[in-house]
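In practice, a research group might receive sequence data for several interacting partners and want a quick structural hypothesis before committing to experiments. The following worked case mirrors that situation: the sequences arrive first, and a predicted assembly follows.
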Amino acid sequence: MATPENRLAFDGGWEYAPAPESTDHVSIEKRYGLFINGEFVAPQSGRYFDTINPATEEKLSRVAEANGADVDKAVEAARDAYRNVWSRMKPAERGKYIYRIARIIQERAREFAVLESLDGGKPIRESRDIDIPLAAAHFFYYAGWADKLEYAFPGRKPKPLGVAGQIIPWNFPMLMAAWKLAPALACGNTVVLKPAETTPLTALKLAEVIRDAGLPPGVVNIVTGAGATGAAIVEHPGVDKIAFTGSTNVGKIIQRALAGTNKKYTLELGGKAANIIFADAAIDQAVEGIVNGIFFNQGHVCCAGSRLFVQESVAAEVIAKLKERMETLIVGDPLDKNTDIGAINSKMQLEKIESYLKIGKQEGGEMYQSACRVPKQGYWCRPTIFTGVSQSSRVVQEEIFGPVLAIQTFRRFDEAITKANNTPYGLSGGIWTDKGSKIFKMTQSLRAGVVWANTFNKFDPASPFGGYKESGVGREGGLHGLDAYLKLGAQR
Amino acid sequence: MAVLKAVKTISRLPDLSRVPAVDEVGVDERVARFQSRSIKKASKVEALKLILSMIDLTTLEGQDTPGKVRQLCQKAIHLHDALPGLPHVAAVCVYPTMVSVAKEALAGTDISVASVATAFPSGQSTLSVKLDDTRMAVAAGANEIDMVISRGAFLAGDYRYVFDEIKAVKKACGDAHLKVILETGELGTLDRVRKASVLAMHAGADFIKTSTGKIQPAATMQVTLVMLQAIRDYYHDTGRMVGMKPAGGISTSKLAVHYLVMLHETLGNAWMTPEWFRFGASSLANDVLMQLMKQSTGVYQSADYFSKD
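A structural hypothesis for the assembly, expressed as C-alpha cells:
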C-alpha cells in the first residue's frame, strides 16, 4: 500500500501544454428573446438577466425573463399548434421532423459542445463525447417511435396528452432538453420548455435548430427565466402535463401545486447513490468507477455515486488507490481538452458545496482533497473525499451535488444493502464484484431505479431512467419514457 | 522498516490467488481516456525526444547477419544527424549470436546491448539450455537479457516451474538486467497477464515486457496498463521499482505518446526515463523523427529523408 516513502509523484514532471478547444465557430447573440410560436420575441416583462461563464465569471449574454403573460402566450401557441397541426399530422411525418433535429444537432455538435462548456462549466471532453452525442441519440431514438406507438402498447390506442410544460436543470442543459422534447414530440404533444436560469444558451441554440428544421410554429416554445417562470408553467391551466427534473424540494412544491388538477406529471429529483465495492471486485477498475461515479460533471449529477461503501478487508487499499488516482485529475479550464473536472456551475452552488465541506469536518469526518492547482477566477472545487463518516452524518444523508464523496465501510452483504437503502432517495446504485450471482442478488435488493454493475454513469436512450422514493415519479427513456406522454385508450 | 523491506523482497512464490481481478471493459475505458488526451506543442516535443531515448532498436530475424546488425547500430548512434540535440536510443536488441558484433559496433557509446535468450521466442527448451543461452549472451557482453517465460507451464498452472525458471535465469544474468517477456498474446486474458506480472516481479525481474513480437497480438495499451498497475502495486508493497517494456506493434508517434500518457498517469514521474520504460520497436524511431522534424520545420518531409537500416 502507498506509504509516505513509496508514494508516486505525478506533479512537477512532464506537463500537458494547454489544448483549448477553439470558440471561433460559436456565435452567441448579445441578447436572446423568448422562442414563442416559431420566432424569437421580446418578453412582455421587458426584463433580461445575465448568463455568465462560471469558469471566468464573464458575461456571455443577456436572456429574457418570461413572466406570466409570456407563459400565457407560449402555452397558447403550443395549444394552437397542437390542435391545428401537430396532433393531426401523420405520425411518420412527425418522425421526419424529429430525425431532422437529430441530424442538425450532429452536424453542429462541436458548436453545441463548446457552448455547453462555456455556459455551464463542464469539461469539453464530456460535452463533446457524452452530452451532445447522447442528446442527438435521444432524438434519433424517439423519432423512430413516432409511427410505431401502437406497437409499443399492443392492443391499446395511444393518444397524445396535449401541451407539455417541461422544466429542466442546469447540470445537463442540452441533454435534459433532449430527454424531455424527444419523447413529447414523438408522442404528438407540443411543448413549452424552460431551461435553467444559469444555463439557457444551448436550449436557445436548440431553438434555432428547431426553427431551421422547419418545425411548425408553436410545436416547441422555449421560455427562459427563474423559479417564478417555472411556477407559471406548472400552475398554468392550459398545460396538460408537467415534466420536471431538479431538486427534491422543488419537486415537492410542484406536487403540491398539481394536487387536485388533472395534469399528469413526471418528476426526476435528487439522489444519494450508493456505490458498493466488494473485496472480490477488480479493484483498479472499481477505483476508476468511483472516480467516474462522483467526479463526472463536477459531481453535478443526480445519479452520482456520492456514497461509497467499501468492504472492510479492502477499504485501506481502495482508499489509498483512490487518493493516488485523484492526484492525476486535471481541474481547470473547461474548454481545455485535457481537463477532467471543470468549473462549479454557479456561485450559489459553490457556496452550497463549501458549506457541506464545513459541515463534514464539524461532524468529525476526515477530509482529503487532491493537491491540484485551481484558477483564481471562476468557481472551483477540488475533488474531495470524506472518510470516518457514518449514516448519521449529514454529508452522507444529504445531496451535495458537487465533487464530494462520503466513504463508509461494511463487512457483510446484508449490511451493505441495509445502509445503501437507508436513505430517502433511490435513483441509482452501483455494485462492483467479480461474482455474477452477487450482482443479481444486489440488483434485486437495492431500492433504486438504475443499478450499474462494474460500471457507473452509463446512459442510453433505450434504457429507462427514474427514481424510487423521493428521487422521483415516473420513468424517462426507452419504451417507459413514451408512457409518460400518452393517454392509453382502453384495451380493444 | 528497511529490515521489513528486505524480508519482503526475498523471492518466494507469491500467492497468486490474492492478485486482484481485472475487468476488461473497465480497462478499455481507461485506455480510451488516455487516448483522448491532447498532447501538443512543447509537451509533444518533450514526449517525442523521450520516446526516442526509450527505444530498444530491434532486429530479431533468422536472416540477421553481422552486416545487418552493424548497420542497425549505426542507426542507433546516428538517429538523424540533420536535427541536432537528439538523444540516442536506449539499446540495440539482438539474438545472442549477434551480441559481440553489436558490442563492438556500439563501443564508445553508452547505448546498451540487449539480447534475447532462453530459447527465444517459444521458450520450448530445457532449463539448462536456457541458462547456457543466457550465460553465452552475458559473456559476449550483453547488458540486458530479454527472457521468455514458459507459457505452456504457466497455462498448465505450474507457477512454481515458471517462478523457479525466472529465478535461475536472473542468477545466470549476473550484473545484466533481466527483462521478462510474458508473451501476453499467448496468455489470453488480462487476469493471467496480471498474475504473470506479479510472478515475474517476485522472481526478480528488473523489467517486465509484453511480447516477443512474433505472436499477434503483441503489445496493446490494455495489456500494458494491467502490467503498469501490477508494477505500481508491487512498488507499494516492496518499495522496489520494476521497469516496463511494451514490444511489438508500436510503430507510430501518436500511439507511443499515448503510452507515455498512460505511464505518466499510472506510475508518475519516476518511471519517465529509459531506465524504467522502454519501447521494443524497429520502425517507431523514424516516425518519431519525422514528427520532430515537422515540429521544427513546420512541414512533413519525405520518408526518404530518414535512414532505414
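Before designing any experiment, note the following. Residues 144 and 177 of chain B are 5 Å apart (CA to CA). Chain B is about 50% helix and 10% strand.
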